Amino acid sequence: MKFAREGLPCFLLLMLPCLPAHAGEAALPQDFTTHWAGWLAVGIFVLAYVLVILEENIHLRKSKPVIVAAGLIWLIVALLYGSRGDFHTPEAAVRHNLLEFAELFLFLLSAMTYINTMEERGVFDALRAWLISRGFSRKAVFWLTGLLAFFISPVADNLTTALLMATVVLAVGGSDRRFVTVSCISIVVAANAGGAFSPFGDITTLMVWQKGQVEFREFFDLFVPSLVNWLVPAVIMSFAVASGRPENTDAHAELKSGALVVVGLFLLTIVMAVSAHNFLHLPPVLGMMTGLGFLKLYSYYLKQRAAQLEQEEEFASSALVTEGVPESGGAITPFNVFRSLERAEWDTLMFFYGIILCVGGLGTLGYLAIGSRLMYTDLGATVANVLVGLVSSVVDNIPVMFAVLTMQPEMSHGQWLLVTLTAGVGGSLLSIGSAAGVAVMGQARGIYTFFAHLKWSWAIALGYAASIWIHFLLNADLFRIVR
């Protein structure tokens, strides 16, 4: 509050000398990268992102600092452009960024609602129970969880997939810490790699797809490189997995009514999103939101069915199979799609708002143009795109990829696929480099740790390098085509 009363007015007074004497003066070239206020905007973003990195230590949700930073950065943008008589550019730029966020927000909200609904209907619990109760050997569990993580993450998000498979490993591994550690590493690498060859597997691939840089079918050119990215470290780590079978573990879970229908609706929604983009040339979010509408209609059917069963229960004492979850006293809780909607990762969605607006503001000040020149002109596209992956192991890949997409560097289609690959799998180099790694660290607390992952980073780096080499080998013709 003290800043609101004193700091902000003082800041505005400091900016007054920058305002034009006459509003009708001609606008000067809009490059503020050497202006002190431009550096202040960079400092605000850096400070906000430091707080994001320290989220686990200071218990401050990551969306809060970046939302504040976005507002302050755009205040600086508006005042600087206004000082040169240009009041239209900031408005147009911020509206453009808000449109990009709106498409991403609605797309992710639809996908998260479906994932939460499948979880509520017991789809993931049933899969986990099946894996636990099969009596697989430790090596079989190691390979099976990694393989499933690789193939589930392109449809579901890599975070949900990693948590699901890590639960299986913890239930099977028991006190075998070495087995749990290497299996969790394999799962994180596999989930990130699987998400790299699908628009639905990672936020960065979704942004690339929505931006139109890579078409849906073209993502599958990254299938083999992504597979190699996981297989190389997985083969190396498999030698650390002890042979033999774990203790027998019993697990049981039942699918709730409508579970398979929800899965079918989710697949239909994906088809509609892809079709809207490929055939109708409409934003894929339209297909996703239409699919969400189908889910809402189906939830209405389930709710009415549950109400009907409740009425029948009043007249019959015999047991029946309910449509919801039995509560104390035998009451029926019908499915409510808005509960799944409420359970969406709102902190993550608001974090995307802050990041997109922050990066967009810095780009409007001219910093992304400098970054594009330094990276893609001075270093070259290949070196720059490999560095994007390395940076993604420390800094979240979302702002990095959004910055690249905002720069719009002139490069071949093969290079756009390369940066899509590296941004997706680069986070596997460190446990803190991806949401999947951070989540699994929390789930396997004290076993799968930052330093436990770091011991195998050399093997993951070999997979990272091998995937890039395979991409150049298999997709060499794509590097000669400039869009």
How would you describe what is shown here?
The chain is mainly alpha-helical and 483 residues long. The protein has a domain at 257-334. The protein has 22 helices and two strands. A two-stranded antiparallel ribbon has the order 1-2.
- Approximately what portion of the residues adopt beta-strand conformation? under 5%
Order of helices and strands: HHHHHHHHHHHHHEEHHHHHHHHH
How would you describe the shape?
A: globular
Please state how the strands of the largest beta sheet are arranged side by side: 1-2
Biggest sheet layout: 2 strands, antiparallel
Compute the CA-based radius of gyration: 25 Å
Assembly level: single chain
Structural class: mainly alpha
The total count of strands amounts to: 2
What is the helix fraction of residues, given as a range? 55-70%
Mean pLDDT: 82
Q: Termini separation (Å)?
A: 51 Å
* Unreliable stretches: 1-29, 317-333
Q: What's the tally of helices? A: 22
Summarize this, please?
The chain is mostly helical and 483 residues long. It has 22 helices and two strands.
